[in-house]
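User: what does the whole thing look like in 3D?
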Amino acid sequence: MRSSGHDQHRQRTLWQRLHIDLPLLSGILALMTLGLFVVYSAGGQESAVLIRHAKRVGLALFVMFIVAQVPPLSYRKWAVPVFILGLMLLIAVLLFGHVGKGAQRWLDLGVTKFQPSEIMKLVVPIMIAWYVSQYDLPMKIPKIIIAFILVLMPTLLIAKQPDLGTSLLIASSGIFVIFLAGASWKLIGTCVGLASAFAPVLWMFLMKPYQKQRVLTFLNPEQDPLGSGYHIIQSKIAIGSGGIHGKGWLQGTQSQLEFLPERHTDFIFAVFSEEFGLIGVGLLLSVYLAIVMRGLWIAVNAQHAFTKLLAGSLTLTFFVYIFVNIGMVSGLLPVVGVPLPLVSYGGTSMVTLMAGFGMLMAISTHRKFNI
Amino acid sequence: MAPKKRVAIRNHSAEANLFARRTFITFIAVIILSLVLFSNIYNLEVNSYQKYQTRSNSNRIKLLPVAPNRGLIYDRNGVLLADNTPVYSLEVIPEQVTDIKKRLSEVSQLLDISQEKQDKLLKAVKSKRRFKPIELYSRLSEQQVALFSVNQHKFPGFFIDARLKRYYPFAELTTHSLGYVARINGRDSLALDKQGLAENYAATRNIGKRGLERYYQDILHGTIGHQEVEINNQGRVIRTLDFTPPIPGKDLTLTLDIELQMIAKRALSGKRGAIVAIDPRDGGVLAMYSNPSFDGNLFVHGISSKKYKKLLAPESNKPLLNRTLQGYPPASTIKPLLALTGLDAGIITPETEIYDPGFYQLPGIETKRRDWKKWGHGKVDLNKSLEQSCNIYYYDLAYKLGITRISQMMMKFGFGEYTGIDLHEESRAIMPSIEWKRARYNKGWYTGETLSVGIGQSYWSVTPLQLSQALSILVNKGEIKVPHLLKATSEIVVNNKTNTHQPLVTEYIVDEKAPIILKNQKSWDVVLDGLHNTVQKLGATGYNAFKGSKYDAAGKTGSAQTSNIAQDEEYDASKVKESRRDNAMFIAFAPYENPEIVVAVAIENVAEGGGGANAGPVARQIMDQYFGDREIVSKDPRKHPNHDNIYYQNIKNIAGNP
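Assistant: Here's the predicted 3D structure for the full assembly of 1029 residues, as structure tokens:
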């Protein structure tokens, strides 16, 4: 930053000075552009919907840019207080939260509604990465247990709202840190064993009836084709009828004739595959994979354990978004509310995601100077 | 916290290796999971493509049924009797209207719709789907249609919808034979289901309920068409993809002559009764009118309970009853057939004479049966028995024939049986016999009853249609042509190969039954001659009815008692309650050589004078009309029915108002 002289003499490119990772940005912009087209098609071809979405995209890009300017290691100073604040806010949500769509997710701040769980999507990996990176790797069992407890607290609070999708994303972001930090395979095996033993308990005591219904519907959607199975059946029809080439942009009958529910948010992938077919899906997955690969590359090349773990966790969580969303829309997984990242209409999660990409870019561009 | 103070030499390259290994593992996992996703999508979009393609289409493509136009009905001269006329209704699509309340009140003001109705409409509008048209006002007048059309630009979302509804331009003049259509009800749908016709009627609202509309329902209906449309998830039609036009029902041409029908109506005006006129050469019904009648149009739109109650009220004299198919005591009108039975049985010859002192007594029984002429007719042979309608002659004849021989022969003439006319409302009436009485009353037959049968009374009842049919058989000398109203059907045949349309007319094939063969075929002529004399001979009972007619008519009168008259009591119409007065009957045919028309008339509870004076002139008017004393000159059969045109004006003048 302090170097002077003509452009060609600088060691860093303009993009690096702006703290922008160009490959990552290209992938993101490609997805966002695609998102604009698909949202327009899915949103009943209304320009109002498109403009709202475009504004969100702009805001998200701006947030990413701002976050990218902050040196990543400085996050560590804030990790603990923000994490504790976040937990308190989550408790506040459960106590005084605003009820919408049958779940308590928002805090009404008077001016605006605020969703603390979104912040936790970033705070949890920072917190766990900070905690883990203080110790030598691979991690020792007691530290792992503490890390698990740290992950579990926000996860359970959010699951209680109930917001299964977000709690799943937050749990994975923490667990990825622990995994990347080198938790022993023996331990992983034990955990998986415990988890499967825990599943019946979860089913019988912790899951709400509507959540159980979702699982049952997932196992056999045709059982109630006009009720709980309607979403997934219509979604599979949309995808399946797209064929190899798709029906063409704005030509998807399932979406244009409104048979497909929640088509511009969680089920936007069905709209995309109906209109662009298998070829489109292949291209989309390739772009996603490219972004994931770039994220992992940044992680591997980060020079500090904290930034490595954080970058790895953010990238892998991004993939969880993709896998869970496409998996549920195409009938592989039960329906949980996870949007298709960078494509779905929906403000908050896009801004959070882009803040995460801002961190990745910071990790990628600040590294040589800030360790 | 502790870690900062701890001095530890971290092995950064080992950590980096560990991290790289773990990252690599996750990368492999990402690739594998991506492949899982992709192969699942591949499975959906490639392997199951056909299945989901079909399901996607069945989601969005819907077949909308399109009702065929009902066949029209014409009289024998091509005058339209049953038409499909557009009915205009005002409709609105709520989602296309910005301020529905305000617009509604404006449109109501324009078309003069009451406030009360407006409120009801507003409620209806709010309860329906917003993109579906809602009927606001049915049956707009032409003036209202015009008013709205001029102002339509002010009312986006409002429009006028035209639908075809059955219309009977001659109203009550044709109702009893045409019947009417009305809305398909639960019972109709069940019947259609049973016949496997439900699909063909998917878009049809009305169905023939009575008369020819009911009898020829299948022919008149046609075949359903289909519109293939694309719909959205709420069932809103987005666009039409394909259209298979419906095939309209066949048009019917009837044997009825609307002009004769009008004369019949006028002749019966103010009376309760029925007229049937048949062409004996083919059994075609020329006129069939029952008075009082009612307007079948009332039922097409759904009759109000107030109007329906009015039809059922006693002072309306049962207009719903089709008296042409209703049993009356035939009285003396069957005397010619009894004479024929006597001749055939060899009991009498044309020359056989009896002496009529004015009464008849069965051997060994005190009771006297009186002739209508107090002092009797003196010596009576067959011819005179018909001319004077002598009861004593037929008491004697019936006594000698016995009930079994009478009823056997009369059933050959169709009494006590359905004639087989193309109407479902027909009654069999009653031809009494020993077996019939046993079955009906579980009682034996009395000889006294045979005597009553001899003058067409007792249990015996015949419908005016049966009576005209029996007379047809008589003038045809035994040949039986089943009476019918249908003359021909016509349709347009579309040839898809050459893309041409061609009219196809199919003539009705007259049904014939095995003829009546007499032992001596000359007996026919004897009886027919008697009927000829009854009308042509000065002083005969039917003479006044056809005095001075241009054509050569023959016929027979009849006066039926509707209640028993006590021994030696005199019948005086003016002293008897109206409902217990005699019925007047008349049968006639003309020309005497090669008859073209037979007429049967029944009039209930006439004041004085019997069949000759009351029913005779009615038959005469029909005949006069038939043989050319035509009062209606201008005729434009193919013109659309419209009360303004001259033809219909004429009809109104002649038929008068109900």
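In plain terms: The longest strand of chain A covers residues 103-108. Chain A touches chain B through 51 residues (CB under 8 Å).
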